[in-house]
């Protein structure tokens, strides 16, 4: 990506650090100031192993 080479070990190290924080954030209690969440998805066709698969990227915009 953008001419940058990143090893599998680096990707693993980053995700190993982020996943526990992400899970903690996902499991936090929502206060009364969050009456609803808006979920959006963008669908992309991604080529994997010579085949195209449709993948969705989900976002929750801040309200």
From TrEMBL:
Coiled coil: none
Keywords annotated in UniProt: DNA recombination, DNA-binding, Transposable element, Transposition
InterPro entries for this protein: Transposase_mutator (IPR001207)
Gene Ontology terms: biological process: DNA transposition
Name of one Pfam family that matches: Transposase_mut
Described purpose of this protein according to its UniProt entry: Required for the transposition of the insertion element.
Family listed: Belongs to the transposase mutator family.
Protein name per its UniProtKB record: Mutator family transposase
Organism: Candidatus Kentrum eta
């Amino acid at each position: 990506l953008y001419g940058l080479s990143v090893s599998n070990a680096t990707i693993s190290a980053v995700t190993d650090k982020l996943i526990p924080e992400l899970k903690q954030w996902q499991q936090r209690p929502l206060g009364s100031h969050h009456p609803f969440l808006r979920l959006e998805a963008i669908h992309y066709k991604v080529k994997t192993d010579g085949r195209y698969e449709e993948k969705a990227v989900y976002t929750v915009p801040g309200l």
